[in-house]
Automatic annotation (TrEMBL):
Residues 1-28 form the signal peptide. InterPro entries: BCAA_transport, Leu-bd, Peripla_BP_I. Keywords: Receptor, Signal. Residues 37-375 form the Leucine-binding protein domain. This is Extracellular ligand-binding receptor. Belongs to the leucine-binding protein family. It comes from the Bacteria.
């Protein structure tokens, strides 16, 4: 038996010897998985209203990998990219390109909740590891949760819930909401409403416009006509810049208090200028945190990119940290998927936002800060809700 086995091995040994003799190209092709690179596929918006968000995520991710000498789990990291244009219709084809054509080990994407739905579907069909570095779509860590689906950001429900809690505690009663009509806006409002109404507040009107439209005027006029105690909005990126400026130009800044999830003022303050001063928002990141991890992260990011980091850069950085936890556990052999997943599930991510762990549905359990715009900063005022976990309704893992 033993002898037979070694006899059968002989031709294989000869074949290897031939390969070695015929040169390195053939050798590289037949090399065992232990020496290959980890292939990361960025599926992010590089154009459109969310372009800056995609860039910051990629910057953050690359910075972490660079800090590890360009390697995770001892293997070099190779990048592939597609611009998802924040277009849900193109999502399945774009995700399939990374998975089938480029054969990536992990997809890191994306920003837009509608596009995310397409990526989640394709990642599940192919059992490809997915790390969501922004999009909050509740389903990804709710009814569509999966062992291969992870998030380094937040669920849409979370920042909305935190603000609902804050405004109810301030005794506000009557609030109007305004957002883009797609999952991110609608689910933020849902989270807000859940916390706000549980404590006696009332959302009296829910207004919206299609993504990524920025013709806010008629809606701003409508809000003013209702005379609510406050307005709660979700906008982000380029659209958020325009909304904050339009709100001030309409003369409402000192008349109706404007509150939002922190995306309204993150990465946007330079462009918003005076129109944003004093705005209060809730988010899982803020300026003026005192943990040492944040201090070094901010210094290094500013040095490397000549830019100030924002929440999106943090989420990209932490997506890489999460991947590192998995890759380190298997010494870079990403084919050992169950072990990769187990290590990622158990990770305690040393984030600039403050350390966090993942819920059973793979969503960060994290503090939500109340912040106030002061100059170019979203200065932390307090922790609005500590260790907030998304309820993960419908997730069976
Ligand atoms: C989303 O579509 O989930 C989304 C987009 C931009 C943000 C936050 C959430 O800043």
């Amino acid at each position: 038996m033993h002898r037979n086995a070694s006899r059968r091995l002989l031709p294989a040994c000869l074949a290897v010897a031939t390969l070695l003799a015929t040169g390195s190209v053939a050798l590289a092709q037949s090399a065992p998985a232990t020496s290959s690179k980890i292939k990361v596929g960025f599926m992010l918006p590089y154009t459109g209203t969310y372009a800056a968000l995609g860039g910051a995520i990629e910057n953050g991710f690359r910075m972490y990998v660079q800090e590890q000498g360009g390697k995770l789990g001892g293997r070099e990291v190779e990048y592939f990219k597609v611009d998802d244009e924040s277009d849900p219709a193109k999502a399945p084809e774009n995700a399939t390109k990374l998975i089938k054509r480029d054969q990536v080990d992990v997809v890191v994407g994306t920003v837009h909740s509608g596009v995310q739905m397409g990526i989640v579907k394709v990642a599940k069909e192919n059992n490809t590891l997915l790390i969501i570095p922004n999009a909050g779509v509740d389903e990804a860590t709710g009814p569509l949760c999966g062992s291969n689906i992870f998030r380094s950001s937040f669920s849409n429900w979370q920042p909305g819930y935190a603000m609902g809690h804050v405004l109810a505690d301030r005794g506000l009663k009557k609030v109007v909401t305004l957002t883009w009509k797609y999952a991110a806006g609608e689910q933020s409002v849902k989270g807000f409403k859940e916390a706000f109404e549980a404590k006696g507040g009332k959302v009296v009107k829910e207004l919206s416009l299609p993504f990524p439209n920025v013709e806010f005027q008629a809606l701003i006029t409508e809000v003013a006509s209702i005379k609510p105690d406050a307005v709660f909005v979700f906008f982000a990126g380029g659209g958020a810049v325009k909304f904050v400026k339009d709100w001030q130009a309409a003369g409402l800044k000192d008349k109706i208090p404007l509150y939002a999830s922190g995306f309204l003022t993150d990465g946007t303050l330079e462009a918003q200028g005076v129109a944003a001063q004093g705005l209060e928002t809730t988010l899982h990141y803020a300026d003026g945190l005192t943990n040492p991890r944040d201090k070094s992260f901010r210094l290094d990011y500013a040095k490397l990119y000549k830019l100030q980091p924002d929440v999106y850069a943090v989420q990209g950085y932490d997506a890489a940290q999460l991947l590192a936890a998995g890759a380190n556990a298997v010494k870079g052999d990403m084919s050992r998927k169950p072990e990769v997943i187990k290590a990622m599930e158990a990770a305690k991510v040393d984030s600039p936002r403050g350390a966090f762990t993942l819920s059973k549905a793979h969503n960060p359990v994290q503090d939500f800060y109340l912040r106030k715009v002061d100059g170019r900063d979203n200065k932390v005022s307090s922790v609005a809700v500590k260790a907030l976990a998304d309820p993960a309704r419908g997730c069976r893992l």
